[in-house]
Amino acid sequence: MNTAALRNTEAVQALEFPIPAGVYAERVVSVKHYTDRLFSFRITRPQSFRFRSGEFVMIGLPNAEKPVFRAYSIASPNWDEEVEFFSIKVPDGPLTQHLQKIQPGDTVLMRQKSTGTLVNDALTPGKRLYMISTGTGIAPFASLMRDPETYDKFEQVILTHTCRDVAELRYGEELIETTREDPLIGELTEGRLHYFASTTREPSPHTGRITTLIENGELFKALGTEPLDPATDRVMICGSMNMLKDVKALAEKAGLKEGSNAEPADFVVERAFVG
Ligand code: A2P
């Protein structure tokens, strides 16, 4: 049993199985259900846990000798005292069928090492950062849009979120509201943080896939910006596999080059957690 696990004594006493090495056992602080497919939760943050905004970490539950772990983007910024996640609920998903039932006080396992490419370090400087997301792909951007470093690097920060219906947009809407009002970061975002939402299976002010709205120019018209340009624009993409492929193709068509931690460039992609 590791020291992080021992720290959380109450939770540890309730565990049926030993905690694997290199894993934190943390307590659930709060859970919020948005729809029958989406929920968010916050857990205690181990003092020694460091990450870069936009990274993901492996999450599991202490309900088996060999717990199932899945990659989750950290939705909270790196200055937050807790760690936040935004999750899909898959009825027969090996992890989420159980995870969706967690309550405050329960224990969640988190591997100690975070990683990922949706980080400021993987992009070269630019004027404008587009964070393009669908579904739970908004999570890494929830972290990045609350990190002062993002505003040091970019003049304008644009979050796009596309979901099936209006109810699924709620997490992002609340995020924008609370970020703008936040005593730490609110002032920094003034006039610089922009939000564009669209739905694909229910009418709303902007209806259609983000790929369609990029191609027909509706996104840029709504934001008052020009089409993607490598001279000024940087792009981060997070969503389902097909969405990544299609948005990536549009970024490349506009002349943007894919970057990585080792070789920063104009855009980066990461798959949102699905199972
Ligand atoms: P659609 O309703 O047309 O499938 P999901 O919840 O299934 O991950 O989907 C989230 C959003 O991503 C939905 O609005 C969905 O649109 C959209 N989407 C799915 N595939 C693509 C794609 N290849 N390109 C752009 N958007 C996509």
From TrEMBL:
Q: Does the keyword Ion transport apply?
A: no
Q: What class of enzyme is it?
A: oxidoreductase
* UniProt keyword Metal-binding, yes or no: no
Q: What is its EC number?
A: 1.18.1.2
What residue ranges are annotated as transmembrane?
none
**Record Pfam families:** FAD_binding_6 (PF00970), NAD_binding_1 (PF00175)
Catalytic reaction(s) noted: 2 reduced [2Fe-2S]-[ferredoxin] + NADP(+) + H(+) = 2 oxidized [2Fe-2S]-[ferredoxin] + NADPH
Q: Which UniProt keywords apply?
A: FAD, Flavoprotein, NADP, Nucleotide-binding, Oxidoreductase
Q: Which cofactor does it need?
A: FAD
Q: Which residues form the FAD-binding FR-type domain?
A: 21-121
Origin superkingdom: Bacteria
Q: Which family does it belong to?
A: Belongs to the ferredoxin--NADP reductase type 1 family.
Q: What name does the UniProt record give this protein? A: ferredoxin--NADP(+) reductase
Organism field: Chelativorans salis
